[in-house]
Design a protein that fits this description.
61% helix, 5 helices, mainly alpha
Length: 124
Amino acid sequence: MAALASRVASELHQLAGLALDLQDALSAAGVAQKALGEAMAGLQAIDRITQNLGDLSRLLTALGGQLTPSTTIATPPLADGLILRDLAHRLFGTEGIVAEPRETSETGASLVGEPARSGEISWF
């Protein structure tokens, strides 16, 4: 359990860094000058996401430090709830993770708004 908390904390820390990079890139691109009110609200939302991800990372790091090596959990119920198989593998390893087929349309796109396969891009 402590290892999982540490891995999740690491993922959240990386996501917080990506959100900060996104915020910096949008600011540098001059988005704020084009539509000041709307752009600033969007940048503020990204900043809030960044701060929340950072706090969640710190929380899980602290949680992991309080767990003992004997604390165990059943991996499959947790891993099976994740859509991104590569994330599941980073968090839980490869054992016990079953890639379940997702219902897709004739084109192979997911019918529930999620990528049909890990790494696939969803266009909005």
